[in-house]
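Hi there,

I know you've been waiting on this one. I reran it after we fixed the sequence typo, so this is the corrected version. Both the input and the resulting structure follow.
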Amino acid sequence: MEIDENKIDEAVLALLYLTLHDDARAWKSFDWDAMGRLHDKGFIHNPVGKAKSVLFTDEGLQESERLFQKLFAKES
């Protein structure tokens, strides 16, 4: 099976929104490769470090919310 890493990244970014706290921080308990790609795409600040959370960029926070709604919100 070939994995679409862009779909993985979208899901991880959306799930990061689920753990949003302190305005623009999210718990970083996801796959390190995916977190690295999100950093490379400019959605989060560097995830490497002792902190258990990661800081969204402004663009990343907006995209995270959009993807969360797209992937997980019930349609009326």
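Quick highlight: The chain has one domain: 5-72.

Best,
R. S.
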